Each structure stands twice: as C-alpha cells, then as structure tokens.
Amino acid sequence: MPTDPRPTLTRAKVASQSTARAPAKTKMRGESGSGARRVSAETVAANVMRLLEERVFLPGDRLIEQDLADRFGVSRGPVREALRILEAKSVVRIEPMRGATIARLTDEEARESVDASAVLFGLAARRAAARAEAKGLKALKEHVARLREMIGLEIEPKAFFRQTLRCGRVVLEMSGSPRIAKLVVDVRFGAPDYYGPLGFTTSDLRRQAYASWRALAAALESRDGDQAERLGRKVHDDAMEAALKVAP
Amino acid sequence: MPTDPRPTLTRAKVASQSTARAPAKTKMRGESGSGARRVSAETVAANVMRLLEERVFLPGDRLIEQDLADRFGVSRGPVREALRILEAKSVVRIEPMRGATIARLTDEEARESVDASAVLFGLAARRAAARAEAKGLKALKEHVARLREMIGLEIEPKAFFRQTLRCGRVVLEMSGSPRIAKLVVDVRFGAPDYYGPLGFTTSDLRRQAYASWRALAAALESRDGDQAERLGRKVHDDAMEAALKVAP
DNA sequence: ACCATCTGGATTGTTGACAATATAGCCGAC
DNA sequence: GTCGGCTATATTGTCAACAATCCAGATGGT
Predict the structure, then answer these.
(1) How many residue pairs bridge chain A and chain B with CB atoms within 8 Å of each other?
(2) Distance of CA A92 to the CA centre of its chain
(3) Which nucleotide is nearest to A95 (CA to C1')?
(4) pLDDT digits (tens, 9 = 90+) for A54-80
(5) Each residue of B41-69: pLDDT tens digit?
(6) CA dihedral (A103, A109, A110, A116) positive or negative
(7) SS3 assignment, position B63
(8) Which of B178, B196, B199 shows the shortest CA–CA distance to B188?
C-alpha cells in the first residue's frame, strides 16, 4: 500500500519520485524532443537530421560544436557524441582538428549510396515475399491505391514522393528484417544531397512509379521472391530517375 | 628568423612550438596505436575492434567506460565517442543509463547481416565487372591461384578464410566504389558472432569456394555484370555455409 | 523463509575548464 | 603588390569533477 507517508527519508531528492516525472528539472533537453527517454546525444543527432531534411543545413556546411551545443541547450560532450553517430552514417564528415561538415557527396558517391540502398531494399522485398501475411499485403495495397489516386492530382511532387516512402516502409515491415530495414534507411539518408527529391513532376513519371509498386505488391502476394527483388530495385530506380530529372 | 628571443611574449605555451613534435607530452595514446595522427576516439574504437577479433571481448560482454579508459590510457570522453561509433556499426549495443555491451545477435539477426553483406558484395562485383582493368584482374587471379594451392594443404581453416577475404578485398577495390566497399566491411563486422569463422575445414568446402571465386574472376574478365553479381553472392554464401558447418 | 524496502557503491550522463591545434588577419621585407 | 612569418582568435581534443541513475546486497517486517 503506497499510503505510507515515508517516515525514514534520508535523501531528500527521492521525494520528487512520487510526483510523476517532473520534467522541469533538466533544462528542456532537445529542441522539440519527440522521443521519450533518449539521451542528449541521440536527441542532438536526431535534431541535426531533422534540420538536414528541412534544408536548414546544407551539404558542405560547417558544424561548430559550440553552436550546436547552444542551439540544443546541451554542452559539447553530447554534441561530439552525436557527431560521431552522424559520421558513422556518413551524414557528416569529420576531419581531425578541423571539425565536422555536412557531407558533400560527388555524383558518383550519391549514386553508390542509392545503388546500395536499392539492392538492400531488393533483399528486403525478397524476404517480404517469403513471409507475406494478409495484414501487410492489405496495408500495402491500400497505400499503393492512394498512390494511384495521386497520379493526376495537382499536388506538390514531394507529397507523391512521401507516399512512395510510406509504401517502402510497409514493405520493410513486411520483410520482418529490422536490421536490413535499418540499413536501407541509413544508407539512403547517407546521401543528403538527394534529400527532398522533388521528382515525380509529370504524370508519366507518377504512372510509371505506380505501375512498379503495383507489380511489386502483386509479386509479394504470389510470393515470388525473384520478382519481388527485381521490382524492389525498380521502384528505387524509378524514384532516382525522377529525382535526377529535376536536379541533374 | 626564429633567433628573436621573443620580447613580447604574452602566452608562454607557444614556446614548445619550435622543438619538433615532442611526443612524450601526451601520455602514450592508445595501446599499440598503429595509426599516425588519429584522434583518441578512433584509436579506441579500432582497438576495441581488434580485441573483438582476437576474441578478448565476446558477445554479451559488458563494456565499462572507465575500464576501457584505463586500458587505453585516455579519459571517458573519447571512450564514449568510440562507443557511439561502434554502436552505429551495430558492434556494440548501448542502453541508456545501462551501459554498453558487445552485441549478441540472434541467429536471425546474424543471417540478416550476412545476407545484406552478400547483396552489397554482389553489387560491388557488378560494378567491378563494368570497369575491370587488367591490373586488378591480374591481382585477383593471383590471389585465387593461391586459394587453389591452399585446398589440400594442412593449414588451419582460418588461413584459407583469410585468403578469401583478401580476394574479396581485391574485388572491392576493383569496384571503384569506396562507399559500397565500406558498407560491405561494416555490415559484415556488424555480426561479431560470426567473427573468426573457422569454416573451410574439409577440402570439399575449399574446392567449392575456389570454384566460385574462379568463376567470379572469369565473369569479371568477360565483363559479365549479371554473372559477377550472382557469383559475388555465391562466394559469400559459400563462406557462410562453411562457417555454419563448424558452429551451428 | 519470503517479500518489499532501503541503502551504499558502481556506473553512466553531463558539464565547465584547460590544452593543443588550426585559421584568418596583420605586419614588415623585398 | 606580394610573399613569408607572426599573432590573436576561434575551434577542437581532452580531462576531471559532479549529478543522476541503476543495481546488488542488507535490513526489517510478516
């Protein structure tokens, strides 16, 4: 029974335990901390990634440790850890004693990342085909159907692109392979230059992408691993082709 | 002229500048620092990797920050950065407020890593086929020839395995795709359980591996990308099959 | 004996300070 | 003007100390 008023209280700090998780103690960690109990380093890394997606940071930009520390309200320690995390993902580049910069990829390097992500996604699709369940298939079909609806709509290309990402996420979940899924995402984001591919500007490109996704869904339903892998790569290539059309 | 006795010397520390790179100042960084001017964090990460390969650290082992700091003669700061690097490679696992442990992979997770590495190596082989140069081909053939010589020899299986690694490294170099090459290595080492695969115990397994490598070399020579990718995966599968024979 | 509770030590998370290095700007020699 | 060296500042690398948290063993009640 927790009604006990706690008679023998030696350390005062324990008192705040019962009052639910007082957050004002540590000074507002992170900027918009979406996570629950993450450590500063991870929060900082996630926030840098967000600013990267929002085009606040651009490839080649210098990242000053103290600046990031001030911006996110932490000290340089966690910032340095965050930079190491991002370096391992090839998102930033660290030169000893020279500091960190947002990775600026050559076209060749970007191509490598995209190709790598494509074959990994192909592998995920193959695995998804081997264990396709009704639930996942249903979700994928619905997402693909929305893709079709968006072909003729007058929306910004980014919305269409985001929908393809959602389709991809479903396939990754269906693969039941979290490690491979993580790799696909990490490698893809390792190419910051090709971030918000504003491709899919013409209805032709969209129709092509929809056709590929629909075929992939069909391959998964018939549990055809070879076809699934091939089409998994194809949807990737479609997206890149569309992206290259707008930013060559 | 540096003969000037420096009349207006505001900060004294600049004095040690002229005497060439006194190394005794900072207390012997690293344990056996093979690198030249690396920062502590990278040295620590590399040393942990080495100890991992030498089976000093085993999957599931707890990594105490202070222990590592003492062992390598640095403070906890660089150690924490090193752990972040290793975590990003999935070599160690960090739980907030609970510390770091050497990743212990389930069979499923290990399989995922190996499969991912295999398809990435297949991609590298395809790229190598597209740009195969005489020099690389020659080197590869020589390495593969040594592989054949090692089939019947009474050597420890590890030596044969290492030789296949050397062959793989040549292919990765031939691919001219450093990013993909790095991914192959990182993903492969992300599965510490399958480290020193002591496979290739029987001459049958070795003969099989040699045949695959020889076929891969031939595919590269004839610039057949499809075959190269297929065989690139096969040599990977051979290695894993051999490893599974010894430690199921 | 069993259970919850309470310690005290061990370990992680974070910070501020200091040292080492690089960089941009200044100055004088030519 | 241009070049090379010097200096002041900015920035990174490192460390030791403090705070927060977790964990194993002790403690006490039933």
Answers:
(1) 73
(2) 16
(3) D12
(4) 889 999 999 999 999 999 999 999 999
(5) 999 999 999 999 888 999 999 999 999 99
(6) negative
(7) strand
(8) B196
